[in-house]
Write a structure and sequence with these properties.
about 15% strand, Nonspecific Lipid-transfer Protein, Chain A, 7-stranded mixed beta sheet, about 40% helix, elongated, 2 domains
């Protein structure tokens, strides 16, 4: 699962101010009787900050209580800077420092955090092309951590190995950490995750006696779902958990959980599936991943890749990469084709389930908030705020269209044993 765009990312437009500028007339208002002075320049920069963001319906509250707004629309939230240092850090390094300031409690969001981030994502989508170029340049200053054999283990350890008990607090009972499938909008999370696993199996039209290789098996939910599977994962805690579950359910002879990197997968399989793992591969390794699929799939083989993605190639937000998901990269559809085209695979189906993921994260966020006190006891309050921002930002990114969720079904070229229609997919 991958991550949201930073709310403070847009570069300034070229503009000038005259003596009649309303900002100049409001400078005197940027003094407060309590003596916590705000400089004239800081008031102007706060106004510009909102303009750089595309004039979202927000209110910036400076450390002296002064409120700065640009949009004529009623603000959806108030962003409160507790001190001058925080304001300048966010201004000069927004990609990283907004998330850090929120995590540290030096910046507060009064109002619904998801709605606030959604509004910023939508306003940023309307900014000029030149602004987007500058944004891309600023993001280019940050380098993602590599996903080599050693680096990939370190990156996965940072996120997935922080404790099974933590994830158990807010995931569903099968511990599925990828987007659910809400075949009807009122499904509970557990039912929607089971519907997703069933949906994936139908897309692969699995038949009795066939073998499946799973790449990035998480806590084992799909492998335990009813087929013969070899599941590969480099997270030791996840692999051990999945093995215990398989033993408890009497499935040890049918399911094998292997702690190893995808680059080391051998054998021949009828189907390959990977849910929420491609984000951790890195685009420079896609051809390597594709060669693994080509090596492992039988002549009648087919597969399904589910991945968080983007409409256009862009680096992930540095705060997400540094603090939450090191080494992550959500690809565009064009970039995903590097998995399939060099090895001659045929694309059979592409579906975008981003709204299903937004709804999934809404459920996760509600459960996380209900368990926030337990999470604080496990870690600390900063950890709670950090993960609240991560989950809220992810939800906002999917609901606003900043992130996508691609499901791509593919097969060996010329394979004709495929369904004639989509009817079987929706026959519950």
């Amino acid at each position: 699962m991958s991550p949201p765009h930073s709310p403070f990312v847009q570069a300034p437009r070229s503009e000038s101010y005259s003596a009649e500028d309303p900002l100049a007339r409001s400078v005197d208002a940027c003094m407060h009787p309590d003596g916590r002075r705000v400089w004239n320049l800081e008031c102007r920069l706060a106004h510009r900050l909102l303009r750089w963001l595309g004039d979202p319906p927000l209110c910036l509250v400076l450390w002296n209580g002064e409120e700065i707004t640009e949009s004529a629309t009623t603000p959806v939230a108030r962003v409160v800077f507790r001190d001058r240092v925080t304001f300048w850090k966010v201004l000069f390094n927004p990609h990283l420092c907004f998330g850090d300031a929120y995590s540290d409690g030096r910046l507060e969001v009064e109002g619904d955090l998801v709605s606030m981030l959604e509004s910023v994502n939508r306003s940023l989508a309307d900014v000029s092309i030149s602004g987007n170029r500058i944004q891309a340049y600023l993001r280019a200053m940050y380098r993602a951590r590599p996903n080599t054999l050693t680096g990939a283990r370190q990156n996965i350890h940072h996120h997935y190995d922080i404790g099974n008990d933590f994830y158990r607090l807010w995931l569903d009972d099968a511990m599925v950490y990828s987007g659910a499938y809400f075949s009807t909008p009122d499904l509970m999370l557990e039912d929607a995750q089971r519907a997703k696993l069933d949906y994936v199996c139908r897309k692969l039209w699995l038949r009795p006696g066939e073998s499946v290789v799973e790449v990035g098996g998480g806590w084992g939910a799909l492998a335990l779902y009813g087929v013969t599977v070899k599941s590969f994962n480099i997270s030791k805690p996840q692999t051990e958990y999945a093995r215990r579950q398989a033993k408890a359910e009497g499935l040890g002879s049918r399911v094998e959980f292997i702690e190893d990197d995808y680059r080391n997968i051998t054998g021949r399989f009828d189907a390959l599936v990977s849910l929420g793992m491609l984000e951790h591969v890195g685009s420079r390794h896609y051809r390597e991943f594709g060669r693994m699929m080509h090596r492992c799939l039988s002549p009648m083989g087919r597969g399904l890749i589910q991945s968080i993605g983007q409409d256009q190639p862009a680096k992930i937000n540095p705060w997400i990469e540094h603090r939450i998901f090191p080494g992550t990269y959500p690809p565009s559809l064009r970039e995903m084709m590097e998995l399939f085209e060099p090895c001659g695979f045929s694309i059979l189906d592409v579906e975008n389930l981003r709204l299903h993921y937004a709804k999934t994260i809404r459920h996760w966020l509600q459960r996380f908030e209900a368990s926030a006190a337990s999470v604080a006891r496990m870690y600390d309050e900063r950890f709670v705020r950090m993960w609240r921002l991560y989950l809220s930002g992810s939800c906002a990114a999917f609901s606003s269209g900043a992130l996508q969720l691609f499901q791509v079904t593919f097969a060996r070229p010329g394979m004709n044993e495929i369904p004639w229609s989509r009817a079987s997919l929706y026959g519950y």
